[in-house]
């Protein structure tokens, strides 16, 4: 069983993102396959079972300043993955949230996850957010499950509960199609994000008092949140030590939250984009004790 820790911000409009995850390397990564420049390793090659492979990651990403915002900000965050030497590195999409794997098999893995949601503050846009209460940054712990029906397809689902910033229940469904080619790995797939009324009102609702103070917004109380989009990435594996991932994503806020005056221009935008770069550094070590 492998234990791994993966850092990300979760992107859709929330995953607003949140969002660059970790090294994209599937269980059947092309760099591990025999090619003209990568000879097949002998079957009897010995790997010390006491040796660990550690991957350290750094990601820089452009995300909406807050859920439904029309302007963007840059965020940077670290990441990591730990596994025994010889174990294949699991694929991780750039918008995966912080995850810790407790159960891992070839076709299934599961464990706890955590997403961070940027806050919306009056100082972000003093002209249009006047009179609105601040929406604090939020933390959403939960559980994730991943299933590989075939090696080239990953299905991932998350259920999370807001414990700070908001107290709504949210979830994410993601599908990734993996295309390895020599030292490259391409991935692309749809994303679906959902949230209950508590979450929707926190970021897309306008109370009568807020509308009266603002003077230009009308009261609005969405009963739910959902969005749909697409995330794609390409990873280049330079060698056993370094790899680089370039990625981008798009999602659109739909349904009741998409009809909120806070996502109409000039207050916001229902179309949400993300993009960035991740660099991974991998090395081997033995336990200190």
From TrEMBL:
Which InterPro entries does the record match to this protein?
Answer: MipA (IPR010583)
Q: Where, subcellularly, is it found?
A: Cell outer membrane
Q: Which residues form the signal peptide?
A: 1-30
Per the record, the major location class is membrane
The record's keywords, sorted A to Z, are: Cell outer membrane, Membrane, Signal
- Keyword Iron assigned to the entry: answer is no
Membership in a protein family = Belongs to the MipA/OmpV family.
Official protein name in the record: Outer membrane scaffolding protein for murein synthesis (MipA/OmpV family)
